[in-house]
Amino acid sequence: MAISLHLYIGLGSCCAACMLLCMGYVTSLFARKMVAAAGDSVDASRLLTSVGINPEGPWEPKDMIPAADYYDMLERIAEQTDVTGLPLRTGASMRLDEYGALGLAFKAATTLGASYARIERYARLWTSVVEYELRPHPLGTLFILQRAGERRLGLRLSNEATLASAVSIARQVSPGPVKPLEVLVQHAAPKSLAAHEDWFGCPVRFDAELDAILFSPETMAQPNLLGDEGISRYLISHLDAELSQIAAEVTFVDQAKDAIAQALSEGSPKMTHIAGGLGLSARSLHRRLSEHGMSFKVLTEETRRDLAEGLLRDERHSLAEIAFLTGFSEQSAFTRAFKRWVGRTPASYRKAIFAR
């Protein structure tokens, strides 16, 4: 049963292939903030350790964790406490000084609209799973959050916290109150909207077509307290350099993941084989991955998981075929591994997808 990965990818779009092979990352800062906002109702140390964060280590925004692990962590928090207000408390706790150069650039922009334009361009510095868009609207400007993936609870909580954070940081740079005209959220509403509407200071519409914040022209045009053109030019050059570096890093990691994915149907890939296909020695591959905070073992595991989740969304493939394509010699071994990854069997995962 020699099914090539490229043949499988050819059945879908190029974009879908990229989604399948590229596991997203978010800054560890978000995870730390969510856990802190949950308070004494959770074991903070255990939660952070479960996603690879040292609870006693420094709060470094450049330290990334897999987005799927982040969503898993949020769902574990939801099992232990009421999370209705968690995204709002998290958003309120965000401070621009914690965002590094991007936070400074947000402050230094001359208007709030210019600040959000920097988020639109440079958010890639703290996440690879979210894109932002500023879109004209008859009443002003929409600041849109775009996050692909299964709309599981962890992702929904993350989206709400991101929207709350976007308003929180705006209030930190503006001389007057910042109140959106409306906040839009794609998923269903909680039992009460009171906490959300009180915090945002405007109507919050769930079951909307977008995740977005609508601002008036006057709000977007108001000057920032610390806006400075000279400092802005300096920071922008710094951010452009960081963005270029990240783009190069992602390209290499993606190439390695693609090579691993193609080799999986022949069993668990060997580092020497993958390195050779990339024109590197095993030692060089190890070094390059280490520079990006990765190991070959972790990258292989992530690739297997990403590929399995993508294949399970296609009913044309049996569980046995998926086990083979993800490098398992037996379906039972695949089932055990998948349950370890996502907390449910491949069959129940697929059933839940197509039950929606």
Explain what this protein looks like in three dimensions.
The protein is α+β, with helices and mostly antiparallel strands. It folds into two domains: 82-227, no CATH class; 249-354, Orthogonal Bundle (Arc Repressor Mutant, subunit A), CATH 1.10.10. The protein has 18 helices and seven strands. It has helices at residues 5-10, 14-21, 28-38, 44-50, 67-80, 86-93, 101-108, 112-122, 153-173, 194-200, 217-221, 229-263, 271-277, 282-291, 296-312, 319-325, 331-342, 346-354, and strands at 25-27, 64-66, 130-137, 140-147, 182-184, 204-205, 211-215. It has a five-stranded mixed β-sheet. A two-stranded antiparallel sheet has the order 1-2. Strand 3 and strand 4 form a beta hairpin.
Strand element count: 7
Strand order of the largest sheet: 3-4-7-5-6
Q: Stretches where pLDDT falls below 50 for ≥5 residues?
A: 1-23
Oligomer: single chain
Number of helices: 18
Radius of gyration: 22 Å
The structure class reads alpha+beta
Number of domains: 2
Order of helices and strands: HHEHHEHHHHEEHEHEEHHHHHHHH
Biggest sheet architecture: 5 strands, mixed
Overall, the morphology is globular
Q: State the separation between the terminal residues, measured CA to CA.
A: 31 Å
Strand and helix layout:
Blueprint: H1 5-10, H2 14-21, E1 25-27, H3 28-38, H4 44-50, E2 64-66, H5 67-80, H6 86-93, H7 101-108, H8 112-122, E3 130-137, E4 140-147, H9 153-173, E5 182-184, H10 194-200, E6 204-205, E7 211-215, H11 217-221, H12 229-263, H13 271-277, H14 282-291, H15 296-312, H16 319-325, H17 331-342, H18 346-354
Parallel strand pairs: 5-6
Antiparallel strand pairs: 1-2, 3-4, 4-7, 5-7
Helix pairs in contact: 3-5, 3-6, 5-9, 6-9, 7-8, 7-12, 12-15, 15-16, 16-17
